[in-house]
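Revision sheet: structure tokens.
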Amino acid sequence: MLELMTNTPRDYAWGSTTLLAELEGREPTGAPEAEVWFGDHPGSPAVLVDGTSLPERLSAHGQPPLPYLLKLLAAGSPLSIQVHPSRTQAQAGWAREADLAMDAPERNYRDDNHKPELIVSLSERFEALCGLRPLEASRRYLAELGDAEGVRRLRSLIEPAAGASDADILRAAIEELLAGDSARIVSDVTTALATTTSAEFVDELAAARRIAEVYPADPGIVVAMLMNLVILRRGEAVYLRAGLLHAYLSGIGVEIMAASDNVLRGGLTPKRVDVPELLTLLDAAPGVVPVIRPRALAGATAVDTYGPGVADFALAVARPDAVGGVVAEIRVDGPAIVLATAGESTVELDGERVSLAPGQAAIALGATGPLHIDGTGEVFIATPGEGIDSAS
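Predicted:
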């Protein structure tokens, strides 16, 4: 069975006012449009064309809830600096908060699941902060900012310390910046950003200035400067495991994650920030976060896969070519969601066909044969982990 489904964009303040409209080929509404959720998560379940919610349809077919959530994400300004728990951490946090109402302001955990996630850029340039930068590079970066008192204090936080690992140093620095008296550091660093130049850190300085404009006086400005700036080109992706500090800054992408809404924030947000709990989840070990490029799916036609090798989800992209007569074929195991992101495409499953324009999605249930995708478009295919295979 193959059914079209839709959802309303979420109007988070950081959402772009233009990127989703441009993708879908419509006029902007003038309001921020941050995310469109294609899944059955109770926070914003998708709706089928007959008005039935996706959770209702899955239940009617004897299907359990989806283990993944697929989204379109469009960032017009920086998202909060955040970290997601492991499954063990989420279960423990959920149990600790069992007596709290779901809307209690002190609640951190919305469910008992982990939230690994992967995002693929649909923009020619997608900027994100991912993980903590190796300390030697951060020391070079901060050395460019001059010698104001707050800047010197910041540099002192990441200097080598006897018996302390780089992760220990960074964890202590983040705790001091978020929970201590960091107002002078933030003020002096923000002032220095206005005039600092650097041949090595051009993009990092530009990103820090934009962050400071949106969140003046927020200590997250300085925490962000200790993180890796990752710039994705169209079709490139980054995978974010549990414990990895991250924040998306700008661009539009396809995001897939485990079906969870657990987020611990550490700055650049008016929402709740629980520093002690964030630190318990944080993996403070520094290192470069690799950019993932799609790889051809063996035995399939015109299909690339991103993996990433987790049990909750897998993601592939099909790019058929009507001019060349190429039809993409991919076999899926488990409920699959197909999401069009460019051009015009037709998806066929077991004799049923649906046409998809950019921004439109459909769900495939009870597949006995492969998906056939033709046209001149681009279609992402989401399944449970290990649910994507060649059509041969």
